[in-house]
Structure formats: C-alpha cells, structure tokens
Design brief:
The chain is an alpha/beta fold. It has 33 helices and 40 strands. It has four domains: 278 residues, NAD(P)-binding Rossmann-like Domain (Rossmann fold), CATH 3.40.50; 306 residues, Rossmann fold; 170 residues, Domain 2, N(10)-formyltetrahydrofolate synthetase (2-Layer Sandwich), CATH 3.30.1510; 108 residues, Formyltetrahydrofolate synthetase, domain 3 (Roll), CATH 3.10.410. Strands 12, 13, 14, 15, 16, 17, 27, 28, 29, 30, 31 and 32 form a twelve-stranded mixed β-sheet that branches. A six-stranded parallel β-sheet has the order 1-11-8-7-5-6. Pfam families: FTHFS, THF_DHG_CYH, THF_DHG_CYH_C.
C-alpha cells in the first residue's frame, strides 16, 4: 500500500452526519414542538432486497429522532393507485420527504419515471423528480440533491483533494448516479468526462483521472493498473459474486478491484461500508432540510404570504358594479389557496374561481397564534345604505394589497331572496367587491340549498311521523320502526339514544315490554303544537300561512303552518355557531320541533333525523374561498338573519381565517345591521361561543344616512334623491349625529377601540366630512377616517387600514355586556338600556310565564299557548325548562331603529321597549325575545330586481345583478 493511502469509510462519515442531524432535529422540535420531520417510504410488493434497504432507512430515521413510515402496497397495485398514494402523501403535512423504493415489484406495468415525477419537488428527498434533476443540471443547488451523488461528493471533500481544477472521470450514465454525479462535479469546477461500459480505451481514460467515480454495475471491472497513482476512487457498485468460503456462498464486491486499487489510489471506498451508508445519510439530511424549511416559515416573525395582488384599472366615472367585476379576471382559486398557506388536501375546487376549505386546516394549524380580530358594524340602517360590506371588502384590499399584511375578509353568504327582491346583491360595490359577483350572489357552493334540504327533510319526517302514528297500532308502528332484517331486529344508534332519554336501558328489540314499546314508538306529537316550519330561499309572501295535508291520501290530517326564508332557519344559525362537525351534530339533535300531547318537547333526535341532516350538511360546514377585485382572500360562509338570529358569518370561517393569517395578520368579519343588533350579538353570542377576543370595531357611517337620522325627507325606492341628500346641509347632518355617537358609545362599552369609517359619496363635502370626523373623535372614537374605497378600491381605504392596524396594537380590554347566569329579564333589560337607550321594558304575562318556565324546574304546569308575531305557535313546557335560563339573549327587533318602531330615527332615549313574545332556539343555543312585528318570510315588492335579471343566451353572461 502506498504511504498515506486511506480507506474512505462511508460508515464512519455517515455516523458523524447522523449525529449532526440528531441535533438539528432536536432544534426543530425545540423551536416548533408540533413539528416532527417525517419520511414516507413507498414500496410496491415485498422484495427482500428492498426490505433490507427500507429497514436501514427506518433505523437511521429513528436514530436521529425522525418519523419514518413504511407505506407498503400489494403487488396488485396499479399505476393509478400508486399515483393516488403519492398524491395523498404529497398533500400530507406530516411528511416532509417521500421516496418510492425501486424497483417496483408490481404485477401490472408501472412507469417508474412517471412515479418519481409525481413526487412533489418540495418533498422529493431522493432528488429524482425531473424538476430537481433539471436544477442540478443548470447549477441550481436550491432543490434536493440526489442522495448517492451527494454522498459521493461529501466523501471526496473529506479526502482534502481539491475538486476545482481536477480531472474527474465518471463511469456510468444512469439517472440516479452517473449523470447527476457528473453535474455535481462539473459545478464544483472539475473537468468531467462521462464514460460507460462501451467506451473505447476505457483503461487509458481512467488512467488520467484525479477523481474516479465508478457506477457501472459490473463486478470488479476497474483494475488497479488502470488507476492513476494518488487518485481518489469512489466505488458506487455493489455486486454479488460466488465465494465458497462464505456461509452464504456469496460475497459483495464493487465495480473496482479493491485489493488492486489500495496500493495505487490515495483514497478508496470499500464495498460494503463505503457509498451505501452515505446514500442513507444524505436521504436523512434532505428530509431534515425539508423540515427545516417548514420550520423557518412557521417561526418567522415577519412572515408574509407570497400573495400577488391583482392591479385595478380605475376609471371615472365609476362604472356599474357588474362592469367592474367583469373587467377583472380573477386568479385561479387554487393559486390563491396556495398563496395563503392552504395545502391541496384542504381545498375542494368548485371550478376555478371558488373552493371549499376543509376544517382539517384547523387541526393542522391548531397551535398557531391567531390573527387580530376586527368586526365591521354600522349605524342604524336607512334605505340609503351605509355600505358595510363594501367597506369591509375595501378595508381588506387595503390591508393585504397595499399594507402588505396577511388579512382575510369573512362575509355571510347572501340569500337569493333579497338578490331577486329589492336589496340586490351583497358582494360589495364599486372597486371593493367580491368576485365573481354572480357566483357570490347566487348558488355559490350550495350551502343555503343544503340548509333548505336539511330543514325540509326534518319537516317532512315530522309530518310523516304524525301521519303514521295516527294510522297504526303501537305494535305495527314498532315493527316498522325496528324492522326485521334477515329475521333479526336491531336498534339504530339514534334509536338507542332515544331509549336512553326515556330511561330504558335495554338494547335488545325483543326485550321491550308493551309499555316500553308504546313509549318508544309513539312521539304523540300534538299537531297543533308544531313549531318547525318549512323554508325556501325566495321572497314569497303567500307562504306566510298555508294549510298542508289536503290530499285525500292524508286522511284529513290537515294543519296550518307556514314557510320561512331559508336563512332564517335555526339550522342556518347552527351552521354559523358550530365549532365543528360534532358540535353541529349535537346542536341539530337538540332542536325542538314540536311538543307532544303532555307538553314534553319533541326534538330532531327524537324523530331520528339528526344523522341524515348531518349528511346533507357535511359540506356546508366548510366555508367557501373566493377573492376580492384585488385578488385578496375572502371566506364566505353562513347567512343567518340578524333579527331572529345573530346575523354573523360563521365561527369556523373566522377560526380558519385567523389561523391562516397568523399572529401579525387580520381577520375582518361582519355583523349584521347596526351595533345595537349585529355587533351586540357578535360579542355576546358569537364571541361567547367561540372564545375569541375582538381587537377593534369598524363602524361604518355615511353623511347621507346621518342626514336621514337628522330628520331628512323620506326616501322612496326608484325616486330621485331629494336635494338635502345631494348638497351640503350641515344643520341636518348635525341633527343626525346622535345616532352615530350612540353606536360609538355601544362599541366602547365592550372595551374595544372603535374606528369610524366615513364611507364617502361624490355628493359629500369636505365640511360635512370634517363635522362627522370631529364629532366621532369627541365621542371617544379611536379614529374617524374618510374612506373612498368605492371609487378607488384598496388604495382609497389605505388610511382606514392604518387606523385599524394602530387600533389593534392597543391591548384588548374586551368585556361582555352581561353574564349568562343573570336572570333572563335582567339580561333583556341590560341590552335594552345599554344598547338601545331604553328607559324601561314591558313584558306581557305570556312572556313572563315563558321566562318562569325556562328557569324554574316545575312539573305539572299546563302548557302556555301563544301566537307569536311570526305566524307560528310557541309552546313552553315546564318539563323542558331546566337549564335554559342561562342561555344568551338574541333580541328580535327592527334593524331600522334603535327602538322597536322602525319609523323612529336618530337616537331617542328613555323610551319603553315592549317585549311581546319570546321563543327558544335550543339547538342554536339562545333565547329570542321579540319586539314588534318580525317576519321570517319577506315578500316581493311591486317592482323587484327580477325585472332586471336576465341571461344573455349569446354570451352566457348573467345581466342585471347589482
């Protein structure tokens, strides 16, 4: 052996690398405790030689504290099945590296190159994806380097031999070793020749090599006499040859005659124990590097989305909403999803412009800090409109596209009722819109239809049960409810829950006594005590009262009932308040739909319909991802009424938005109507249910609306505005300011800074804006900003966005208005006095009886029957009173006034608020006191928007939406 010649032990170097990686993994876990580097090893079939390599990789992963999973597929696996497995792993955030063990031991043809290219370049720790290979070929080392060549490079570096300027010969041209090896040497400034088994005069070529890498797959092909004295020899071959001295009769050798090379070369790798351990070490290193990239992104304090806003082309005068919307081409929603940190498995595409977002994202990001939480409310609405949705959209465009903050808008899905009625769409307006506006205002992803279907399925089951109980004996009813299948009867899980509620602990259908059969089978619903109605997502006044069961087949079992609009369904309120699937299921189960003839409540679970409703609603619980005109994200979800329900977008949409936007981001969500209704319910119902702490309120006002509150003339739909609204009138404006000041006061009572957004109109004057601004600041508003987002998009709301950022930087002092354990009447009084400015409240005897029955545990009191203002009957049962006194209050009151009278404008004080009815939403989880006339089914006006909406049959475009 020449003096100084060394054996290059890959085993020793790999051990050093693993020790370093072990420390790096520990550091990742220290910085991000929820992140463990993960490697997926996919194998088709069960070749033992492949199993040996897989065990080596799993052992190495375990040694450094990494998770490795062996995903073994049968030999019958098809190419499509294997691609589906790779796709699943690509989308699984638990895995930072994926390798497909070769060769593929499959009974069916599989294109190995197609499979390696299917592995995401970001997880291709083998470095075999064409994208990563291409990077190496062009000198871009930012991707994953192929493991064996990278291990060879590490061994060459350990010899101390300078690579730059050396002459290197690579024997072998395979995709896995030879070709990438030559590229790595080339970009390390060696002069490289690639040869192979068919190269002429190969021995003479090898004789010139300072660095020799052999990966040809021929045992001991390279002889010692071919090697240049002092050369570095890296032997990548591993071949089995006969050896009668070995117990197995075989021994492993490389592509180089090792014993002959030792006396001549300066460094030689042994086989085994040379390149093999280094390949595994480099695989581990690539996986750890992948996890480190994820960790850096998670811990980076100033992390921003890589979001590319869409530029606006502003024109004057401002075109119609639909013209603006159609002039902007939305980005593909899959691109937007990736920009804001969603992974493909969390996104279900509905075409290219909208997508459902899975609740799985909440589990993945459960340990991430929440974004700042901002709610947009308004002053008392007027027919002139305040532009709450437009302001919200403009603000988020400003935060994201102009202030470069992560921010998400969370909006309710609009009902088709107002879209085809008189209000029109709710996608914002001008240059602050959600697009495509047609999708937003119409079917979207079908959530309202799902609520309609679930609601009406429950109604259908309720009426069918009344019919079947009226026409069958106890035994016949029981035998149909628990049918014999293949000679055996079995209770469904939902039926077992009913048995448990009845105190019947039996699970064998044949063990029930006749009395137990009767109690189980008969709900004994009183047809006159049904409180559940059917719903439809249109304005249809003739469905406010109907008679059902008129067909002769229903045997004269008729009853009076009604329809409500879909968004007023208790199911919609539940959709908005549910924190997940299980929570939604429990809430649906508790919905009271009727009372039996003894006064006991009948629930959706009693009717056996909970599971079926869940099936209809399983996709509806996922919010819909859309975008603004400037390409910033919007989550659209739920749309409950703001008078009969709480009128806010969903908890899950806000939760998802807060996790995606992150600690330094913003979620801007909406509350229906003014601060007295939507904001109050947002705080006391929604925030109480979600546990979220709001950081700021944006209170939207307009000069024109304040003039109306100051006594301005009545506005008639379709008629030109009076001159008071079109020209400067400081006296009228000043008289209307008390309404704004009352809403500022309302927000401040919760300890949250209030930013007033003065939504500018072209007819406003600077003096009018200044009057509003000074009054708002004097009343305690954190800031009052004139915002021109309608005409200028996010740019016009940049100052408003900065004010919101500054307000959110103040420590939150949020507090609720009342505690739920207060008596119901005291909670009502607190809301009426603090939010509306009332002096007293008046409860009639019916309401007082109901409150007593909600709060007292009394049995035997007769049912109280009352006709509420919704045209349906409400029955309060003493049997069902337990525990409801501690529910929050959801006041049903006109949105058009701080009082119960919609004609009263401004900010009256010390008036009497009359509570003329009260009802229970047990599933949604609140009590609803009602003030005045509240309709759950709007009607169409004489001249609805229907006249303007049409489909252009030549272009396929919808016309007339606004």
């Amino acid at each position: 052996m020449l003096s100084g010649a060394k054996i290059l032990s890959g085993t020793d170097v790999a051990k050093e690398i693993r020790e370093r990686l072990k420390k790096e993994v520990a550091e990742i876990r220290r910085q991000v405790p929820t992140l463990m580097p993960g490697l997926a090893i996919v194998q088709v079939g069960g070749r033992e030689d492949s199993n040996v390599y897989i065990r080596m990789k799993i052992k190495a992963a375990e040694e450094i504290g990494m998770y490795a999973e062996h995903v073994q597929l049968p030999r019958s696996t098809t190419q499509d099945e294997l691609l589906a497995t790779v796709k699943r792993l690509n989308e699984d955030p638990c895995f930072h590296g994926i390798i497909v063990q070769m060769p593929l031991d499959s009974e069916t043809p599989i294109d190995a190159h197609l499979i390696t290219d299917a592995v995401s370049p970001e997880k291709d720790v083998d470095g075999l994806n064409t994208i990563n290979e291409g990077r190496v070929a062009t000198g871009d080392m930012s991707g994953f380097l192929p493991c064996t060549p990278n291990g060879c490079m590490e061994l060459i570096k350990r010899t101390g031999t300078p690579i730059a300027g050396s002459y290197a010969v690579v024997i072998g041209r395979s995709k896995i070793v030879g070709t990438p090896m030559s590229e790595l040497l080339k970009w390390a400034d060696a002069t490289v020749t690639v040869a192979h088994s068919k190269t002429k005069n190969l021995n003479l070529l090898i004789k010139k090599a300072d660095i020799l890498v052999v990966a040809v797959g021929r045992p001991e092909m390279v002889r010692g006499a071919w090697i240049k004295p002092g050369a570095v020899v890296i032997d990548c071959g591993i071949n089995s040859i006969p050896d009668p001295t070995k117990k197995s009769g075989q021994r492993l050798v490389g592509d180089v005659k090792y014993e002959e090379a030792l006396p001549i070369a300066s460094h030689v790798t042994p086989v085994p124990g040379g390149v093999g351990p280094m390949t595994v070490a480099m695989l581990m290193q690539n996986t750890v590097q992948s996890a480190q990239r994820v960790a850096r992104r998670l811990i980076e304090m100033e992390f921003r989305w890589c979001l590319k806003p869409l530029p606006l082309k502003l024109t004057e005068p401002v075109p119609s909403d639909i013209e603006i919307a159609r002039a902007q081409e939305p980005k593909d929603v899959s691109v937007l999803a990736k920009e804001i940190g969603l992974i493909p498995s969390e996104v279900s595409l509905y075409g290219t412009k909208k997508a459902k977002v899975s609740l799985k994202v909440l589990e993945r990001l459960q340990y991430e800090d929440d974004a700042k939480y901002v709610v947009v409310a308004g002053i008392t609405p007027t027919p002139l409109g305040e532009g709450k949705s437009t302001t919200l959209v403009g603000l988020v465009q400003a935060l994201t596209a102009h202030k470069r903050c992560n921010s998400i808008a969370c909006l309710r899905q609009p009902s088709q009722g107002p879209t085809f009625g008189i209000k029109g769409g709710a996608a914002g307006g001008g240059y602050s819109q959600v697009i495509p506006m047609e999708d937003f205002n119409l079917h979207l992803t079908g959530d309202i239809h799902a609520v309609t279907a679930a609601n009406n399925l429950l109604a259908a089951q309720l009426d069918a049960r009344i019919f079947h109980e009226a026409t069958q004996t106890d035994q016949a009813l029981y035998e149909r409810l628990v049918p014999a299948v293949k000679g055996s009867r079995k209770f469904a899980p939902i039926q077992l829950r009913r048995l448990k509620r009845l105190g019947i602990e039996k699970t064998d259908p044949y063990a029930l006594t006749p009395d137990e059969i009767r109690r189980f089978a008969r709900l004994n619903i009183d047809p006159h005590n049904v409180v559940w109605t059917r719903v439809l997502d249109v304005n249809d006044r003739y469905l406010r009262k109907i008679t059902i069961g008129l067909s002769p087949t229903e045997k004269n079992l008729t009853r009076d009932t009604s329809f409500a609009i879909s968004v007023s369904s208790e199911i919609m309120a539940i959709l908005a308040l549910a924190t997940g699937l299980e929570d939604m299921k429990q809430r649906l189960a508790k919905m009271v739909v009727a009372f039996d003839k003894t006064g006991a409540p009948v629930t959706a679970d009693d009717l056996g319909v909970t599971g079926s409703m869940m099936v209809l609603l399983k996709d509806a619980i996922e919010p819909t991802l859309m975008q603004t005109l400037e390409g910033t994200p919007v989550l659209v979800h739920a749309g409950p009424f703001a008078n009969i329900a709480h009128g806010c977008s969903s908890i899950v949409a806000d939760d998802i938005g807060m996790k995606l936007a992150g600690k330094r981001g913003y979620v801007v969500t909406e509350a229906g109507f003014g601060s007295d209704i939507g904001m109050e319910k947002f705080f006391n119902i929604k925030c109480r249910a979600s546990g979220k702490v709001p950081n700021a309120v944006v209170l939207v006002t307009t000069v024109r609306a304040l003039k109306m509150h100051g006594g301005g003339p009545i506005v008639t739909a379709g008629a030109p505005l009076r001159r008071e609204y079109m020209s400067e009138n400081l006296d009228l404006l000043e008289k209307g300011l008390p309404n704004l000041l009352k809403h500022i006061e309302n927000g401040l009572k919760y300890g949250v800074p209030v930013v007033v957004a003065i939504n500018a109109h072209g007819t406003d004057t600077a003096a009018e804006h200044e009057l509003v601004r000074k009054a708002a600041k004097a009343a305690g508003a954190f800031e009052a900003i004139v915002s021109n987002h309608w005409a200028k998009g996010g740019e016009g709301a940049a100052e408003l966005a900065q004010a919101v950022i500054d307000a959110c930087n103040r420590p939150s002092e949020f507090k609720l208005l009342y505690e739920v354990d207060m008596p119901i009447e005291d909670k009502i009084i607190r809301i009426a006095k603090e939010m509306y400015g009332a002096g007293t409240i008046e409860l009639n005897s019916k309401v007082r009886d109901a409150i007593r029955l909600y709060t007292e545990k009394v049995r035997g009191i007769p049912n109280k029957l009352a006709h509420d203002t919704l045209g349906q009957k409400v029955f309060i049962s003493a049997v069902y009173s337990q525990g409801f006194g501690k529910l929050p209050i959801c006041m049903a009151k006109t949105s058009m006034s701080l009082t119960g009278d919609p004609s009263v404008k401004g900010a009256p004080k010390d008036f009497k608020l009359v509570i003329n009815d009260i009802c229970l939403s047990a599933g949604a989880g609140f009590i609803v006191p009602m003030c005045g006339e509240i309709s759950k089914m709007p009607g169409l006006p004489t001249r609805p928007s229907i006249f303007d909406i049409d489909l252009n049959t030549e272009t396929g475009e919808i016309e007339g939406l606004f």
